[in-house]
Write a structure and sequence with these properties.
The complex is a heterodimer of chains A (156) and B (175).
Chain A: H1 17-20, H2 25-48, E1 54-59, E2 62-68, E3 73-79, E4 82-89, E5 92-97, H3 104-107, E6 117-120, E7 125-130
Antiparallel strand pairs in A: 1-2, 1-7, 3-4, 4-5, 6-7
Chain B: H1 8-30, H2 46-55, H3 58-76, H4 79-105, H5 115-138, H6 147-171
Helix pairs in contact in B: 1-2, 1-3, 2-4, 2-6, 3-4, 4-5, 5-6
Classes of the chains: A alpha+beta (156), B mainly alpha (175).
Amino acid sequence: MSQIQTQTTRHKPPRRTASALRLRKGDVVLMGLILLLVLLFWGGLTLFSTKGRVAVVTLDGAEICRVSLKEEQEIPLTTPLGDYLLVVRKEALYVASAPCPDLICAHHAPISRAGETILCLPSRLAITVVDQDTVLLPPIPESCVPEKQGDGGPVL
Amino acid sequence: MRPPAYSARSVAKLGLAVAVAFVLSYLEVILPLPVGIPGVKVGLCHIVVVYALYRMRLWETLMITCVRVVLAGVLFGSVASMMYSLAGAVTSLAVMRLLRQVNRWSSASKPLFSPVGISIAGAVTHNMAQMICAAILMGTSRLVWYLPVLLLSGCLSGIVIGWIAAFMLSRTHKM
């Protein structure tokens, strides 16, 4: 900034609230532009994304199981943090119960479109819906119930 | 940019600004927004940044931002979150400064952007920069799903922050 900003004298605080809070032309243009972008992206993502058929469940980056979205089912899942319950209804998956303290994953809306993800950061659990055609990993049985092992960790 | 003047006045002013920004960061850590979307917050500490953008020099604003990010990162976050924060903070500061310069070029009585507009631009760039940073570090493009949410939340928090900053600017003297 070029001007020197020093002021030694004290006056009554200036009252310029009304004019300072007035929106300018640029503000309105900016907000409109952002709203347009939101609509474009949101519309584009919804239109061009396909309904996924399978949800891939990964724990700490390692895939532990795949869940078919085509059949209604409830999948209990055991992680080092505790037990999860994943529920598939109407080709969408949601987390019905979770052991994490914040419950962000349990409050997440049901996911059904390819690319949508529910993350549970405390236990590093990620559930991602995939379009099976785009999956490069070798196909494994679509629905699985992880069994408890000695250390309580999930296995395939 | 003028070289930094290490007067007692400037040190006190910067210390005060950093302290306020830091307390606001802390307030946000203990009182998170109950919106259920991870990573979405108002960014109360940016009130100080927007204020400083109008009332202090660029290097002072930059210093307040960096010190605040590093302090908050060390105390409340991890190194990774600090990097995200820094990337977001510095790019948003650059964009806000640019828009402020645009204001200088337009007429003084009728500036193109109010603090609200500048703060919206800052909040949105902050979110975008963090998302790009996360996408690069995690090597995934799935985060594109987050884009509309981040744009919208950035716009809303920018309005709130800009309004508070504009209010404060209208009621205080030059520092």
